[in-house]
Specification:
The protein has six helices and ten strands; from the N terminus they run αββββααββββααββα. It is an alpha+beta fold and 252 residues long. The protein has a five-stranded antiparallel beta sheet. A hairpin with a 2-residue loop joins strand 9 and strand 10. The chain is globular, with a radius of gyration of 19 Å. About 2% of the residues have low confidence.
């Protein structure tokens, strides 16, 4: 990615038919920390890596609760995510107040995608530099991805962010079994996929990066299960199982 004469605004097409600012926004999502989502018949689990700006600072939260039946995991610019998160919460509250029913998950995703698309065609604004994995349950379990371009996709399992291809490879190997899995197994697969995105060794030759209660979090929603976030000490039993599962194959 580099500057050229066609990327000064978001409404100028290049001779190749490209909108460079949208591509830059998509690149911002790819540079963000990895987020993983998996879905069964009854539950959806999202897992994220949290980054810290320094050893003196806290880790940046990447999972947000939207409503009792919807939550999101983000990759990209957290500031843009907060703006869209506030919009989604407002839409849910307005729908609840008017109709006294939860906002249908797909309709909310379409509303966010439409809002994102507007910023790809109006001069003077820029695309949102954030991608969402939207987990929700209304009449069934849903897992959607939204993009800065205004596109959205329905998935059985998905990973976005930095080194997400490694997580996708794991998901592609196992997703056919997700449909009938119990919740604990679904969480295990989500964390295993997230672990695949980690660096196997640091550039300085130090110890390999690993999942800890401080640098990851889970969001869970499903049938008779309101959306809730699992982090810190509550993650320890799941991470202990991950450590046990990977110890015999360490070094492969």
């Amino acid at each position: 990615m580099f500057r050229n004469q066609y990327d000064s605004d978001n409404v100028t097409w290049s001779p190749q038919g490209r909108l460079h600012q949208i591509e830059y926004a998509m690149e911002a999502v790819k540079q963000g920390s990895c987020s993983v989502g998996v879905k069964s018949k009854t539950h959806v689990v999202i897992a994220t890596l949290k980054r810290s700006s320094s050893e003196l600072g806290s880790h940046q939260e990447k999972i947000f609760k939207i409503d009792e039946h919807i939550g999101i995991a983000i990759s990209g610019l957290c500031a843009d995510a907060r703006v869209l998160c506030k919009y989604m919460r407002g839409e849910c509250m307005s729908h609840n107040y008017t109709f006294d029913t939860p906002y249908p998950v797909e309709r909310l995703v379409v509303a966010v995608a439409d809002k994102s698309q507007v910023h790809t065609q109006r001069y003077g604004s820029r695309p949102y530099g954030v991608g969402f994995l939207v987990a929700g349950y209304d009449t069934s379990a849903h897992l959607f991805e939204t993009c800065p371009s205004g596109n959205y996709f329905d998935y059985k399992a998905q990973a976005i962010g930095a080194r997400a291809q490694s997580s996708k490879t794991y998901l592609e190997r196992h997703f056919e079994s997700f449909q009938n899995l119990p919740l604990d197994e679904l969480i295990h697969h989500a964390l295993m996929a997230l672990k695949e995105s980690l660096q196997t060794s640091s550039k300085e030759g130090g110890p390999a990066e690993g999942l800890t209660p401080q640098n990851c979090a889970l969001g869970i929603v499903g049938q008779d299960t309101p959306f809730h976030i699992v982090n810190d000490d509550a993650l320890c039993p799941y991470l202990a199982r991950i450590a046990q599962a990977t110890t015999p194959t360490e070094g492969h």
